[in-house]
Amino acid sequence: xxxxxxxxxxxxxxxxxxxxxxxxxxxxxxxxxxxxxxxxxxxxxxxxxxxxxxxxxxxxxxxxxxxxxxxxxxxxxxxxxxxxxxxxxxxxxxxxxxxxxxxxxxxxxxxxxxxxxxxxxxxxxxxxxxxxxxxxxxxxxxxxxxxxxxxxxxxxxxxxxxxxxxxxxxxxxxxxxxxxxxxxxxxxxxxxxxxxx
Length: 197
Known about the structure:
By secondary structure, this protein is α+β, with helices and mostly antiparallel strands. The chain is 31% helix and 28% strand.
């Protein structure tokens, strides 16, 4: 059996750190989690730090924190949607579930806007998690104008080049379906916190 190990960074309020390190992450069900229900991590610690700082801007008195987690699962339980073979597997498994009667036929997905596309993906990944035993899902999202960088690819292309670069900023995100696959946790921002193994 081949074991996959990956590291992710989770942004949270500093007041949650002790509870997470001593106990576990708490998940909240939302229908717009793009990689299904679970615990979300960035592959880049700076993105996790940016995300939690931005989220906490509207709340007073809460400091930001970033927790580094190591996750392990079997290769068959990890769906990396950046890999062609895993993307093929995603469509094959989803088609099998939809056509195999494991869920009600006649589903109608709302299409058109970005929010609907996210909800559709969340729904389909949650189906596969339940039917296929997936424990870890990863995907890189492409951004042309994220708020965490000084540059704006689209405006640069418009100002300086008549043809687009066809490049983007990248955000690789990882979703763990449960705390069971998390083998270690440590607070990496701010650094005065203790570790848990």
